[in-house]
Each structure stands twice: as structure tokens, then as C-alpha cells.
Amino acid sequence: MKNKIEQIRDEFFKQLALAKNSETLRELELKYLSRKGELSEVMHGLKDLSMELKKEVGELANTVKGEMQTKFDEMSKNLENYGKKSEFIDVSLPGEKFANGHLNPMTLAQNELEDLFTSLGFMIGDGPELESDYYNFTALNIPPYHPARDMQDTFYIDSKNKEGQRDLLMRTQTSPVQIRMMQKYGAPLKVVIPGRCFRCEATDARHEHTFYQLEGIMVGKDINFANLKSILELVGKKLFGPSTELRMRPKFYPFVEPGNNGEYTCFLCKGKGCRVCKHTGWLEIVGAGLIHPDVLRAGGLDPEVYSGFAFGFGLNRLAMLKYNITDVRLFNSGDIKFLEQF
Ligand code: PHE
Fold first, then answer.
1. Ligand 1 atom closest to Cα of residue 172
2. Which member of 168, 197, 221, 241 has the greatest number of CB atoms within 10 A?
């Protein structure tokens, strides 16, 4: 009898494993597990056994019945889920859309300039936002107590160097990276450096404590003002269209000599005068000049052998002009309604 029970179980498992639909399952349940099933039939014969055997065989029959039931339930659940998964799929339905983010307009302006400058053979450099007083000012010809420091007040870090001076600050411009690049790569060198800058400003629609610049330098033998001008002209035409003109007016920056302001004809009124260019016909876009000999020296280069030019774009201003943005504070506001427009 024990053999018979085990035989029933093995046969049941074998057939169960082959079952592919709920119909076969139902048949198996009837044949093996129901009150008139094979197992029950064997159990009917228990009454003819001795007390001792009745107990032994009865126990086995119960365990086997339990095993069979568990396996059966498992199988029917699997089949049920399988049925759900294979439901009809309409492949012509449009797929689920990914929620794409938006590039910040500043990033867009930066990408555009990076593309242009890499196509001209410039590499892209990077420097620290937490900068030393030396690189941000002194090496750029702005020694302590120089009045040019006043225009670039910033956030100083509360730490002191070996000499007991406060020497770490949030960089006010990307110009310190000029020096770092010269020290690292020497000459000849063509590199642009986009990056975040900081100033301690009373903020308004045109001033923000955190903003972006794109610096550029070209250093080599016989680099002159005409080279600077031709590059800036190219940039202007790329940014504002082929009829854009450049004019350069003197401006003082301690780290260039001569220093000047690059202005482009207003893209909106084409030089006639309008609200955007404050009725001058020109837009002030870029600070530039020939690199001061002291700055070349700080970068480890001999000014008797090498010369170069440097320029710095305000990326916020560029993006504001390009996308007609009226308040610089929007860039860092995290305002989704603003960002989703780009
Ligand atoms: N660093 C200057 C500024 O922040 C811009 C500049 C860069 C001017 C390079 C000349 C040359 O205003």
C-alpha cells in the first residue's frame, strides 16, 4: 500500500509538470486529489489494516496528500500569472514618453561657444572655483590693496596659510585659470575655460552673486592684436549672424596691456539703436587684451619670447541677449516654468 501511495504521488508530479493550461489542471485535480480521486480510493482501504499499519500508512498518505496539494496550488498560480502576461499587446500604441530634462540656457550658450572654439583648435580647460588669493588676484597683476580688488569683492574662506594670511576665496573670474594653464602646458597654447564665478554683490536684475564666464587665451611666438581681433570677429558672426561687426574700445584690466572692451553691433536693431543696446547700436560683450608681461612671467613664460591674447565672455549676459531673458537671477532660481522654455 505504501508503494501504491508513492507511485500515485510520482505519477501526479510527472503529469503536473507537463500541464500547460487550466483544463489539464482541473483534470489532474479530479483524478488525483478529489474525494473520488486515486489517493482517496487508496485511503478507503485503510480500514482493513491492522491498528499499527493503519497509523503508519495513514500518516504517509496524509503527508503525500499535503505535498501534492502544495505543488498543485503552486502550479495553478504560475499558470494564472502566465496567462496574464501573455495578454494581447497592441504594438501600434505610442510608447511611454521619457520625461526629458532641459539644459539650462547658460549651458546652451556654453556649449555653443565650446563647439566654436574647439573647431578653431582650442582645447577646453578647467580650474578650481575655490581659488587662492594669489591666482585670483596677485598673479594677475592685482597685488593686495590694489584698487582693482574693490570691483571684485568676493566670499573669503575662513582659513589661514602658513604666513597667517587669509588666502582662499571663491574666484571672482575665470582669469586665474590663464596662469594655471600656462604653468601646466607652457607655450604654444590655445585654450578656453568656461566656469562658475562668484562676487559679493547686492543682487538685482543685472547682478548676481553666482555667474558664469568663458575665458580664452592664445599664447605663442608673435601673437598680436590682429589675431585677437580676428578671433573675436569670428565669434561675433557665429553668435549674432554674419553681418555682425566688432569694435574694440580701451578698457583697463590689470592683467592685459592694452586692455579693451569688445562690442558687437546690436543683433536686434542692426546698429540703429534700440532698447536692448540702450540706443547705442552696440553691445558690450567681451573683455580682452594682450596678456601683460607680468602675467606671462607668473605663468612661467618669458615675455621676451612669447606673447598672447586673453578674453573673457560673460556667459549670463550672452544667454540673456540670445534668449531675451530680463533678469539674471532667473538662471539660478530653479524655477521650472523658466527652465522648461529652453
Ligand atoms: N576677467 C575679466 C572680468 O571678469 C574679463 C577679462 C578676461 C578681461 C580676460 C580681459 C581679459 O571682468
1. 4
2. 197
Classified as helix, coil or strand, 299 is coil
Taking only the tens place, the pLDDT of each residue in 7-30 is: 989 998 898 888 888 888 888 888
Mutate to test the pocket of ligand 1, among 131, 170, 173 (most ligand atoms within 8 A of CB): 173
Helical (H) or strand (E) element with 176: helix 176-185
Count of residues making up the chain: 342
199-241 pLDDT per residue, tens: 999 999 999 999 999 999 999 999 999 999 999 999 999 999 9
User: How far from chain centre, in Å, is Cα 280?
Assistant: 39
- Residue 41 main-chain phi, psi, to 5 deg: -60, -45
Half-sphere exposure of 149 (CA within 13 A, CB side): 17
Look at residues 156, 154, 172 and name the one whose alpha carbon lies nearest to residue 255: 172
Rounded distance, CA 62 to CA 241, Å?
89
Counting atoms of ligand 1 from 1, which one is nearest the CA of 213? 4
CA angle 163, 165, 167 (to 5 degrees): 115
What CA–CA distance (Å, rounded) separates 340 from 317? 19
